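User: structure tokens for this one?
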Amino acid sequence: YMTYIVTILFYIATLAAFQEDGWSSGEELGRVFLILLVFGFAFLPLTYLLSFRFDVPASGFVKLMLLNIFTGIIFFMAVFLLLFDGFDLQDVGRGLEWGFMIFPLFALSHALSNNNVASTT
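Assistant:
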């Protein structure tokens, strides 16, 4: 876990160096650090437990990577589009949003998106 924390610190230093809007103040960087720290507590044990389902490490890695892409990107984009005002599906989007929170990568995407919205408004 300490290696993960060092990686987070490098990520925060990179964000601080580029001084992008919404990702540069101490408060915003602190929120990103906390989000990534909590994400590590959720994601690393889940990955460890799921690794026992596979006999071949290479195929297990590929399958977990595909699962992570699916739960992190596709679920986030689906909920984002359902919550869009142009569609009349906000209730469905809110329900799926809460249901998908059990997936750490969806929660990470959602938290970083909310952090960006909070810092720009």
